[in-house]
Structures are given as structure tokens and as C-alpha cells.
Amino acid sequence: MSTLTDTVSTNRPAPWLWLTLAIVAWIAGYAALEPFADIAIASFGLTKQTHLGEALHFFFYDTPKVLLLLTGIVFVMGVIHTFIAPERTRALLSGRRLGIGNVMAATLGIVTPFCSCSAVPLFIGFLSAGVPLGVTFSFLISAPMVNEVALALLFGLFGWKVAGLYLGLGLSVAIVAGLVIGKLGMEDYLEDWVRVMQGTQSAEFDVAKPSWAERIDAGLGHIRNIVGKVWPYILLGIAVGAGIHGYVPEDFMASIMGKDAPWWSLPAAVAIGVPMYSNAAGIIPIVEALIGKGAALGTVLAFMMSVIALSLPEMIILRKVLKPRLIATFAGVVAAGILLVGYIFNTLL
Known about the structure:
Layout: H1 2-11, H2 15-31, H3 33-42, H4 51-81, H5 86-94, H6 100-110, H7 120-128, H8 133-145, H9 148-158, H10 160-184, H11 192-197, H12 212-247, H13 250-257, H14 265-273, H15 280-292, H16 297-309, H17 312-318, H18 324-348
Helix pairs in contact: 3-4, 4-9, 4-12, 6-8, 6-10, 7-8, 8-10, 9-10, 9-15, 10-18, 12-15, 14-16, 15-16, 16-18
């Protein structure tokens, strides 16, 4: 049997060969984005000087760009995840107090590319393992808002300064909000079934170390699971962004979301974002289009944060775990942090 297994393994193409070819193809595809978009609109007899041509150019340029960025970073993080066992992570956080635990949980959120709804099951898992309530909230806020997908797309579209500032301020919101909720001592506002199951998980695990071939397979699986789920949101977001980019007048957008807009424009942007539901991949193309039309960066990013960190579907799911008073506290604390981030961005940039 071992001889047969060795023969199959020998005949299997080397994963490093396929990975090298994929990297070369990725770089070539990224370099061809602008020519591809130009050829695509030219095939329709359009130019960028028309509204429709400008909108379609945005769509044909941003769709492959966002998908390439997303695929690359998701693969890398899928490989990184093979070095991190979720069970050990829960055990590690369960032994931490407020403060260092909040920092660790918020940082963990960076490498977990979940939307707000899909982060809730892991949030419940943390609670069941005895992780402090405030620490789990730091993760719940950070995971959708400051994950690697958001950072990669922000870096690709706006550069390292915007991505870095977003990272720092987003982590600050997650850490401080978790600390505030933890200090309020609201454990009584967890649903009874959650409180019963807290502390029942074992911290002893024996996780086998995967080979590099298995790690690469895990990265590919990460692409299938994540990109396979979010691509419709990406297309929808880019389509909306293309419409804004091609047809919304710059003066109009600047008047309601620009730096000189009324004081209530930023709170209104946050309030509008909460009922919506998307992830970073779907909302960032809209952010790009709004900024291109003269909207203030802080206002637009505050809108983005509210969409992906305070979505209405997330609140509905959390109602199964949290009582209304704790949900309201969570939403209020996070909204206040998002508003502060928006004002800081508008002041600094």
C-alpha cells in the first residue's frame, strides 16, 4: 500500500510549480487591467468621454482588479490559517483579561475574512469557551471591519496611507468598544442558553502539522469558500459604483458628502449604512466611486464601516444570543467610534 501511495504522490504535479505559474498569471493579469478595460469599451464603440463609456470602463477595470486582489490575499491568508488552530485560539483568549485580550481578539479579526453575519458563530464559540464578553466583542467588530480583504482592497485602490490609517483607527474602534462593553459588566444580558454553555469547552487539543502541499490546498479551498460566496456582492457593488462614477454629478455628491457638507452628513451616512448589508469586497467599489465624485474620505469610510460592522442582518442574528439592551449598547458604542473615525479622517486627509 505504501508503494502505491508513493507512486501516486510522485506522479502528482508539484504544488510549487502550479503556484509559480499562478503567480505569473496573476501579475500578468493585473498589468493588463487598463488595456483590457480600454479594449472592452472600444468593442462597444464607446469612449471614456461619454457617461456610459466612463461607467463601463469603471466596471471592466474594477471587476477583474477587485477579483485579483481578493483572490491573492484570500489565498495567502488561507495558507496562514493552517498555522493557527481555532481551538487553540479560543483557549488562548479564554485565559486573557480585558486589555490584552481585546488587543489580541481585535488583531485576530484581521486574519478572519468574515462578513458581520458569518462572524457571529465564532463569536458564540468564544463565549462558550469562557472568553470574556468585552473581548469577544472586540473580535466581532474587528472581523468584518478590519479583515485582510478590506485592507488589501483599500491598499490596491487608495494606497498604503489610507489602508494603514484605516487599520489603526479600525482596530482602535474594536479595542475601545470591547473595553467599554466589558467594563459595563453586561453579562446578565446574554441569553440564558449562552450563559449555560459558557466554560464547557476543553482547552486541550492535538492538531497535526500539515504539509506544504496541504497548506497550498487549504489556500485554494479558502478561495473557493470565500471568493465563491462573495463574487455576486462584488459584481453588484461594482455595478452600483460604475453607475455613480458615470452618471452622478460631482457637484451633487460633494454637496451632500464633501468636506464642506453640513455637519449632519456624516451621522446621516452612518445611519444610512446600518440597514444595508454587504461585505468589504462589495462595498469598497462603491466607496471608490463616491470618493471619485468628491465625497469626503472620512464620511465615505464611516458609511463603509457602518455597512460592514453594524448591518441589520447581523443585529437580527445577534438577537438569538444577546438581549436587546446589550445589542443597543453594542450598536451605540460602535456607532460613536465610527463617527469619531470619520471626523478624524476628514480632519487629517
